[in-house]
Amino acid sequence: MKKIAVDLHYLPNLEWFSSILEAEEILLFPKDDYQRQSYFNRTRILLANKVETLSIPIQGRRPRLPLDQIKIDFSQKWQSVHLRGIQSAYGKAPFFEFFFPYYLPVFENHIESLWDFNHKLLTICLKLLRWPVKVSVFESKPVSSDFLEQRRLIVPSRPFWERNFYQPTAYPQLFGLDFEPNLSILDLLFCMGPEAGNVLQSSAKKE
Question: Which InterPro entries match (predicted)?
Answer without folding.
Answer: WbqC
